[in-house]
Specification:
Layout (H helix, E strand, L loop, with lengths): L4 H10 L14 H14 L9 E6 L2 H10 L5 H4 L2 E8 L1 H9 L9 H24 L3 E4 L2 H4 L1 H7 L6 E10 L27 H20 L3 H9 L5 H5 L7 H17 L6
Antiparallel strand pairs: 1-2, 2-4, 3-4
């Protein structure tokens, strides 16, 4: 008996894993096109302007170069496909120009609208690939190297990369990652600030499992944690080993400069 849609979708959500090891089995281009077409058709978009674009990288040499821009994550080389999702108002602005309409969306609000559209459609595409038994892994390093990636992909004015993921046939079956309890996320009617006791309860399980996960990596990570005097998970997350505030501020400044260069920020 075929599952009803609701349980099938629920099962798909629960089966999500970030896949970082892939078989050398090539992807059927028709499947890729079908997934992206379905994602476009089935994802909400502000004003139905669809201000996003996908850059597909299959070429081995180009993946190698993008791998260096993504902090040398080898799964980029191993996976048959890397998709870069771009906030893109260039196409829309060209359409406006050709119809003698006023120029628009070359400002910060335009960036926000197109970035949200791009992120939304990327998640739809991720689910589409996963529903076909393929694996994906998002690359947070897209924002860290957005200027270099934009240059390498030859992105035009008012078009910048906002996220990426690799796609392929999984060659691993990692355990499901934990999430915080539902109470951490949901606020009825207005935002309810958690007390110190609430925070302790919300993160109690994460502090045990997450800490154990990173400690189990051993080697250089464990040695560096010892050297830096890292004693718990929040200290690890805010260290130079993970999300250093200094590095994020620097990368944030680089992103702002890119938005200026691409005319998403008005003088």
């Amino acid at each position: 008996m075929q599952s009803s849609p609701a349980p099938a979708i629920s099962d798909l959500f629960k089966s999500h894993r970030s896949i970082r090891r892939f078989k050398d089995t090539p992807l059927d281009p028709a499947i890729v096109e079908e997934v992206l077409a379905d994602a476009i058709a089935g994802t909400s978009s502000s004003g139905n302007l669809n201000t996003y674009s996908f850059v597909l990288t299959r070429d081995a040499e180009r993946k190698k170069h993008l791998c260096t821009l993504h902090e040398s994550q080898e799964m980029i080389v191993e996976a048959p496909l890397l998709i870069t999702f771009c906030a893109d108002t260039f196409r829309t602005r060209e359409w406006f120009r050709q119809r003698e309409a006023r120029d628009n969306f070359n400002h910060f609000f335009g960036f926000m609208v197109s970035a949200f559209d791009a992120i939304l459609v990327s998640q739809s595409a991720a689910l589409g690939f996963e529903s076909r038994g393929l694996g994906i892994c998002y690359l947070g390093t897209t924002l860290n190297s957005c200027a270099q990636i934009a240059d390498y992909l030859e992105l035009p004015d008012t078009c910048v990369p906002v996220t990426s993921f690799v796609v392929g046939h999984p060659d691993e079956a990692p355990a499901r990652r934990d999430r915080l309890p539902l109470a951490a996320y949901i606020h009825e009617e207005t935002y309810k600030r958690q007390t110190a006791a609430d925070i302790d309860a919300i993160y109690a399980d994460r502090e045990v499992k997450g800490w154990a996960r990173y400690r189990a990596m051993g080697g250089e990570i464990a040695a560096e944690m010892e050297r830096l005097g890292i004693r718990n998970l929040p200290q690890f997350y805010s260290s130079e080993l993970k999300y250093s505030p200094d590095v994020l501020r620097k990368d944030g400044a680089s992103l702002l400069e890119l938005l200026r260069e691409k005319h998403f920020l008005e003088d």
